[in-house]
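Intended use. Records like the one below are meant for learning the mapping from a protein sequence to its folded structure. Do not use them to infer anything beyond what is encoded.
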Amino acid sequence: MNAKPDYDQLYEIAEGQAGYFTTRQAKKAGFSGERLSANVKKGRFARDAQGVYRLNHFPGSSHEDLFVAWLRAGPSAVVSHESALSVYELSDVIPSEVHLIVPRTASRRRTGIRQHTNQLQADEITERNGLPITTVERTITDVIVSGLAEEHIRQAIREALQRGLTSPTGLLQQAQRAGGKAKRIIENILGEKCDGN
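Structure written out for the chain above:
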């Protein structure tokens, strides 16, 4: 641990996380619990959730709830399902809770966070707006498997294709990997699109 708190190092950490940082990250930058509390009292930091702080002067972000949830869940968590659809701005779905894919060993009790323990391959994870997030293709298969209404799935696929976020080939490859219901629905929706052209 550093002898003196390093505000520059803490800022660098928080900069890539919408101004947020964890107690553990602050400790690596030389901040003790007492020093964190003193900075909260002085108005430099805000305590947003247990173990999660924010630099008060940092500009706001449209996905602050996702950053807080991700930091609370740990660095192995990945934004997924309806929350990932929201980040990609695909479909009209408004998630009622934050969806994350976490390791099987993760704590299961977190208010406002829906934790999934699905297995992820490295090529199914990307980054968007500083958040680790499932790829568009993986996101669509996840929401199909979790039972999202087909009208929302159809809308998400249409918008993703129109905006160049994925391709029919990419969707079909992920559908093949997922199999079952996801494969059937993606093939049907893509088939409808082809028939309509």
